[in-house]
Amino acid sequence: MAALPLLSGLPDLPPLLEPKVMSSTFGSTASGISPVAAFGIFMSQKDHNEGERPCPDIGGQHITEEWLWSMKPRECMWRFRLSASEIMEMVDALEIPETFITASRSSFTGVEALCLLTARFRTAGDMYLLSMQYN
Asked: What is the pTM of this model?
């Protein structure tokens, strides 16, 4: 096995953190401070809403029985791995209540709860992807 080369020095800074860019970005406050400190100043001056963590907009299609029946069978199978009639049969067979309330107090119809569960099983994405796709 070949030996890994050792770093002979520090890697070059990204162009944004070069001293000449930083001095033009931060004015006279950046002269004489380290690139790490200048980057900290840059990040603290960025426009962002305090206390608000980044996340996608929630929206998308509201899952209803009517919407399921309006879909082409192949689209329903692709989204949920079940046809609309199979979803309705499973809701009845599993005796999912008309209103399903989660531990975090989110409220869904029984059809919507089952569809979200099967959509979650269908995709390897995270919950934000589902919240963007389905309202």
From this structure: 0.56
Count how many domains the chain has. Answer: 2
Cα 76 from Cα 134, distance rounded (Å): 13
Asked whether residue 104 is assigned to any structural domain, the reply reads: yes
Per DSSP, the chain holds a count of helices (H) and strands (E) of 7, 2
Range of the domain at 24: 15-45
Q: 119: closest CA among 76, 73, 67, 86?
A: 76
Sequence length of the chain is: 135
Percent of the chain with pLDDT strictly greater than 90: 32
Q: Which residues face 109 on adjacent strands?
A: 99
Task: Give SS3 for 6.
Answer: coil
Let me know whether 86 and 129 are in one domain: yes
Per-residue tokens: 126: 């995270």
Give tens-digit pLDDT for 12-34: 777 766 666 545 555 544 456 77
- Give the integer Cα–Cα distance in Å for 29 and 130: 45
